[in-house]
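Recall the central idea of this unit: under ordinary conditions, the amino acid sequence of a chain determines the structure it adopts. In this exercise we apply that idea directly, starting from the sequence alone.
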Amino acid sequence: MKVLLVNPNRMQPPVAPLAVDYLGEALARSGIGCEVADFCLDPPFPPGAPPRPARPTTDAEPDAVLLTLRNLDDAYFFSQASFLPLMRTMVHSVREQFRRPVIVGGCGFSIAPVEILDFLGADFGVSGAAEGDLIGFLAALGKPELYGEIPGLVWGAGNTLRANPPSVPDMTRDYFSARRFVRNRDYFERGGMVGLETKRGCPGRCVYCVDPVAKGKEVAVKPLPVLIREMRNLLDQGVPVFHLCDSEFNLPREHALAVCRAVTEEGLHQKVRWYTYATPLGFDEELAFEMAAAGCAGINFGADHCRREILRALGREHDEQDLAQAAAACRRAGISHLFDLLLGGPGETRATLKEVIDLCRDLGVQRVGANAGIRVYPNTPLAGEIIARGTLESHPDLAGRLQENQALLHPVFYVSAALGRGWEEFLQEAIGEDPRFFVPVRTGKDRNYNYNENQVLVDAIRRGHRGAFWDILYRLQENLPPLSIPA
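Accordingly, the structure predicted from this sequence is:
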């Protein structure tokens, strides 16, 4: 059997398709041949041409085509760009070209697999984050009597779509370290970094977050020897800057410390730089210094807010003291850091909005991402509360595509009605010209916090900047040189 893996994500700066690398290895180790068509690095030409992958380089035609869906949209209130219509065009184009079953998977697909499969018109879907589920389905392809037993499978049965729950990822099987199916060096040169995971799944209770939906609530940890081999293989490809794709690196804390110590003991701290996401809850100097010693260059904290009642409404457990401790620990350890705020959520008023902005100033946070509006994604607790109240159009706190979108596949944002009209201007005035804040509108190119089609970032990376996109913007604003990368 042979499978064609297609990366349809065309965002710029480009983000390496981690799922394609891992799936390619899983297929190869199961005796399934595969090739990769990458629309991000090799877009169809001329511009506007149908999105068709190049013909396979071998004589054998694929038995199936798999497209990965990483994101439904750019999650940015002021653009509300949906990626699903183009994905649907790609699905139809690929089916017409190859006349083979078209399968959809990926984190974005796993948010609402039945609804997305119906919208895209693909033949099958595989939801969840377990590579083994795809392998099991391919072994049963063409045997519909077995479909009901295959974890993660979404398929048509008569006039209805059926979906099986996905299995828990098996991180002990090394589908991860080789990193040989994606042109990672090219992504590093054009995107400034390459992602990897140290674990998968998130036990958090954030009401807006899709990670527990798409990746599972159970944490599956990658064995440290596998992680070290993966880092070394990326280094051998000429990639020394990573972004850890874990939902929250320091959940659990013991795993984060173990990763840092393993990287240091193996001497990789002298060869790599890496960024990560983290929760402010319990983040202290011990962990900060361990991370810095292991080569951590920057941390994106899911701060969200500082008001206790708003944080609890969002499902967050940290408080103002945790925020202060995290910022202080990063300063003392010399780690660049960003506080990501989610503004406009349940309970937000103009007073609370100004309060959290003032607190970030008082804490001396290095950079703050002020995200306006909270994207309401399907199958999250926030979405459940909203749908239980009735139609989207009748909800006073919603903005975006509210008609013919009850499944929430297209951008819908929670913006507290208590903010009133003109809240965008009020937010701008509260932030002012403070360069520490990435503003949620396109008023200044160097402060544009939307990473989709961000030409400032594309140009900076072309000139030699590397690292997390927010850290590159920070360096541009401060006229700092590019991230120092070990030789």
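The two ends are 42 Å apart (CA to CA).
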